[in-house]
Write a structure and sequence with these properties.
Oligomer: single chain
CATH superfamily of the largest domain: 4'-phosphopantetheinyl transferase domain
Structural class: alpha+beta
Strand order of the largest sheet: 4-5-1-10
Shape: globular
Distance between the termini: 49 Å
Number of strands: 10
Number of helices: 9
Largest sheet: 4 strands, mixed
């Protein structure tokens, strides 16, 4: 059995990027803009808006199509996905946003700035039997357990419609990929990005052999890529994805590589 490749984690400072990203809110759908506007304060609304724009910018690079042309579909349990594209998941906490990408395998991600960002009322409702008998004792241990649970249920695509009490992730530091018992997921976590606690899970039969790749992004690069993506590339990429769904990879590659008529 070949080890799967590790996911790619891309992150951005939302507060630093917000002034630039505010110039491309047209990338978002009306529903996405409305959703961001529901947050209680201007700061939270700006961060939510920037996080959505960041996600579309990352997907545009992966798919080589314009950010506004990306069609996001909500799965049965509300997890966003893109037809014919990579598996992805977004999480943001405070001014940090992180996107996890994988070319094939369902991926789940959670990032938290500190233990105060975790709702205390929820903690007692996520412990498995074994975790309840050896409970976390410090805020860092609680935070570690929380982000792990979140990442696993997000990889499963069901959120907390999946009962987090039926599997154990532990609260001890580990620092490597490992299988999550009673699930189909593997898990990696740590202080991976800018001092934040980050956990990433893959639905995979075995563990990747390398740690996740981590890349810091900036707004200028994201916007510049989308701005300079030629229309022919946009349409050729879109046609290629549709053909792959109908004809398979080889036929799609042949069709989209034909020279344009003079």
């Amino acid at each position: 059995m070949h080890a799967p490749i590790a996911p790619h984690l891309l992150w951005i400072d939302l507060d630093a990027a917000a002034p630039s990203l505010a110039s491309v809110t047209g990338w978002l759908t009306p529903d996405e803009r409305a959703s961001a506007c529901r947050f209680a304060t201007p700061e939270l609304r700006a961060r939510a808006l920037s996080a959505r724009i960041f996600l579309r910018g990352v997907l545009a690079q992966a798919l080589r199509i314009a950010p506004s042309a990306i069609l996001l579909d909500m799965g049965r349990w509300g997890k966003p996905q893109v037809c014919g594209g990579p598996q992805f998941n977004l999480s943001h906490s405070g001014s940090l946003a992180v996107v996890a990408l994988h070319p094939q395998l369902p991926v789940g991600l959670d990032v938290e700035a500190d233990a105060h960002s975790v709702p205390e009322s929820a903690l007692a409702h996520i412990l498995s039997v074994s975790e309840a008998t050896s409970m976390p004792q410090t805020p860092d241990e609680w935070l570690r357990l929380w982000v792990r649970k979140e990442a696993v249920v997000k990889a499963q695509g069901m959120g907390f419609c999946s009962d987090p009490r039926r599997f154990s992730v532990g609260h001890e530091e580990v620092g490597r990929w490992r299988k999550v018992p009673e699930t189909e997921e593997v898990l990696f976590d740590g202080k991976l990005v800018s001092g934040h606690s980050v956990a990433v899970a893959l639905t995979a039969p075995c563990c990747p052999s390398t740690h996740p790749t981590i890349t810091k992004c900036d707004a200028a690069t994201l916007i510049g890529f989308a701005t300079h993506l030629a229309p022919t590339e946009i349409w050729q990429a879109a046609i290629g994805r549709l053909l792959r769904q109908k004809l398979g990879d080889d036929a799609a590659t042949l069709a989209t590589s034909q020279p344009n008529p003079a």
